[in-house]
Design brief:
Among the domains are: 105 residues, Phosphorylase Kinase, domain 1 (2-Layer Sandwich); 188 residues, Transferase(Phosphotransferase) domain 1 (Transferase(Phosphotransferase), domain 1), CATH 1.10.510.10; 75 residues, no CATH class. The protein is of the alpha+beta class and 580 residues long. A hairpin with a 5-residue loop joins strand 1 and strand 2. It is elongated. The chain contains 19 helices and nine strands. Helix 6 packs antiparallel against helix 9. The termini are far apart.
Length: 580
């Protein structure tokens, strides 16, 4: 059977399935309690005689054998996280607790022709990310500094065992199952052996491997594609501490662009401690985190950090209990956000009922406000109404008269089509007055220098003939539709035929082309054509644009000049006619 994709979650194993690890210990599977990365997590027990109980101390993480994250995590636990080595480290450092999960075994299994890899670990509680989400993304400063000190101890242990974590974040910090005071650094799927056999990896940038890890907290070295190191682990921890105290990071708005996140982190490290101190919130300064990051900036890629000094920078050894309650000020922000969301949801209902919910005193206030208008404003309004120029009045009158009959009927039908609920009971719908009917739209002028007397064609000219003001009486007698005012008529297009501008400019002038009827008259009768030309000439004669035919008579001053030339010619000659 072909192996499944590496990124797919494995098919669930049945409950009470038995697994045998490499040390020949047998484990019984219980119900599935979660998933992480590409694996599933089950309850487990060494008691094979009965089903797994809910209070068991062990869990088993299962993935397909081809997956890489569990293999990397398994190698770390096998080399550096055995229970015996953790206990020896605690005794040598005088620590009561070290937040490294205990490793109990691993192995391979086959079910329905699918090969699985599993790992048995200590059972842990919920992660720290859920605590941060409940506190609006923030923690109390004292709790953050205590977490930082405990994580420095964990990092020192795994660094001494030639590994780095490379993915420190709240989602990978697990609280104890029975004791929430115990915080574990879990999920070593991205762990890296930086110093195999005591030889540190060299600094080498590889753009193809850039931006590895969680983009919010990953180190600047990881952005550049450099292999993880101890300096990178501590820098990631510093970014986490800054986020837990202030509730935000300067690059939160550009997380979709890894290069911009890298630039923002480099700017923060280049401007220490000022930019970090600017992120301080009320009652929680970031001075300790600024000093923490400032020390990390001085480290070389292969340099071993001073872990004791880092603990001192975070406030020294603190024996108080961890307090994960909501910090001061975060509750006010949370309540404000909840109130804003409630107002947003109820805004529609309030808006709909706002007109009905006006109290009686509000009505009286509105009436008093209307009566309290000063006299000078009343006179201004009256003068403004009287100050309409006469030409505006005539334009409105002409526009009301120029309404096409079909538009009038449409307006009447629209007025009668009012739904019954919109009309008061016992009242008939009123016809829309002519003054409120909209006339034809003003046509766009062909050029900015066109005079007002130019002829324009109405928007319905393609289906109805054009009429002028001169024939109003005759048309009324014949029962034709009402004529269209000249101000709404538009003349025929210049040079019809669609020729380009260059060709029109190169042709000789055609004085009679403007008298040619528009293309839509090509199918009309000869009588309609003559009527159009007569109407056009009458309108242009009224506006002074009509061209009169040239006169064939010789001007008088030409006759006078010819006469004097003849007289001069006769006087200069010897002909007897000069005596005349």
């Amino acid at each position: 059977m072909a192996p499944p994709r590496k990124s797919a979650f494995p098919k669930e194993l049945p409950e009470d399935f038995l697994l045998t690890d490499t040390e020949k210990k047998t484990w019984r599977l219980g119900r599935r309690i979660g998933q992480g990365g590409c694996g599933l997590i089950y309850l487990a027990s060494q008691d094979l005689g009965r089903p797994v109980t809910e209070d068991t101390r062990f869990v088993i993480k299962v993935e397909y054998q081809q997956n890489g994250p569990l293999f990397s995590e398994l190698k770390f636990y096998q080399r550096a996280a055995k229970a015996e080595s953790v206990q020896r480290w605690r005794r040598s450092r005088g620590l009561d607790f070290l937040g490294v999960p205990a490793y109990w075994g691993s192995g391979l299994a086959v079910w329905k022709d699918l090969r699985y890899r599993f790992m048995v670990m200590e059972r842990l509680g919920s992660d720290l990310q859920k605590v941060c989400d409940g506190n609006r993304g923030r923690l109390k400063k004292a709790a953050v500094l205590q977490l930082g000190q405990r994580l420095v101890d964990v990092l020192e242990y795994i660094h001494e065992n030639e590994y780095v974590h490379a993915d420190i974040k709240a989602a990978n910090l697990m609280l104890g199952y029975n004791d929430r005071e115990q915080v574990y650094l879990a999920d070593y799927g991205l762990s890296y052996r930086y110093c195999p056999d005591g030889v540190h990896k060299e600094y080498k940038e590889n753009p193809k491997k850039g931006h590895n890890g969680t983009i919010e907290y990953t180190s600047i070295d990881a952005h550049r594609g450099v292999a993880p190191s101890r300096r990178g682990d501590l820098q990631i921890l510093g970014f986490c501490l800054l986020h837990w105290i202030s509730g935000s990071l300067p690059w939160d708005s550009v997380l979709m662009h890894p290069t911009k996140v890298q630039e923002a982190k480099a700017k923060l490290m280049d401007n220490l401690p000022e930019l970090v101190q600017q992120l301080s919130v009320s009652g929680a300064s970031t001075d300790e985190v600024a000093r923490f990051l400032l020390y990390i900036k001085t480290l070389d890629y292969q340099e071993k950090p001073d872990y004791k000094y880092l603990i001192e920078l975070l406030g020294g050894v603190v024996s108080r209990r961890l307090d994960f309650s909501m910090p001061h000020g975060a509750s006010g922000e949370a309540s404000a956000i909840k109130a804003a969301s409630r107002d947003k949801k109820a805004g529609g209902a309030r808006g709909a009922n706002r007109a009905q919910a006006v109290p009686p005193e509000g009505v009286h206030q509105g009436a008093n406000r209307a009566q309290a208008v000063p006299p000078e404003r009343v006179h201004q309004r009256a003068n403004r109404a009287q100050a309409v120029p006469p030409e505006r009045v005539h334009q409105r009158a002409n526009r009301a008269q120029a309404v096409h009959p079909e538009r009038v009927h449409q307006g009447a039908n629209r007025a009668q089509a009012v739904p019954p609920e919109g009309v008061q009971q016992g009242a008939k719908p009123k016809q829309v007055p002519t003054q409120y009917l909209r006339g034809p739209p003003l046509a766009r002028p062909q050029s900015p220098q066109r005079e007002e007397g130019g002829v324009r064609r109405a928007w319905w000219s393609r289906s109805h003939p054009v009429y002028t003001c001169e024939d109003e009486e005759e048309e009324e007698d014949e029962g034709r539709p009402k004529p269209i005012a000249a101000c709404y008529l538009r003349g025929p297009p210049v040079n019809p035929g669609g020729a380009s501008k260059q060709r029109r400019s190169s042709r000789p002038p055609q004085p009679e082309a403007w008298r040619r009827p528009p293309p839509f008259y090509s199918e009309e009768t000869e009588s309609s054509r003559r009527l159009y030309e007569e109407d056009l000439y009458l309108l242009q004669r009224r506006s002074g644009e009509a061209q009169r035919p040239a006169s064939t008579t010789v001007p008088w001053f030409v006759s006078v000049v010819v006469f004097f030339l003849l007289v001069a010619a006769l006087g200069a000659s010897r002909s007897p006619l000069r005596l005349l």
